[in-house]
Amino acid sequence: MSATKFTDVQLTNLYILQAIRLGIAQDRVSTCLKFALDAAQADHLCALNHDELWSLVIRIGQSTLFPPRQDFLTLLKAPAALAAPLAAVHPPRPLPASPALALTHHC
Length: 107
Hints:
This protein has helices spanning 8-34, 39-47, 50-60, 72-77, 80-89. By secondary structure, the chain is an all-alpha fold.
């Protein structure tokens, strides 16, 4: 699959999925909270090997897996000094019902 040419959307999906997998391996709780993942999603993502991850990205095609935050425009318009604090106090989207369920396994 290394000869496959990815589009910008596919590359973005691949990079973020890889970053999430690495994050789950290093700090599952924090990563699941950052990306609003539940335990089943984290487990499934960790179970995919490299080729399966690439195949997933190819099959999904031009659909982004990671839409912008709900407050994306607010953050873009915010003064530079306020963007980080605003992003920190507002989750990108609603948190999963029980983030504690995502705490038990590592990749």
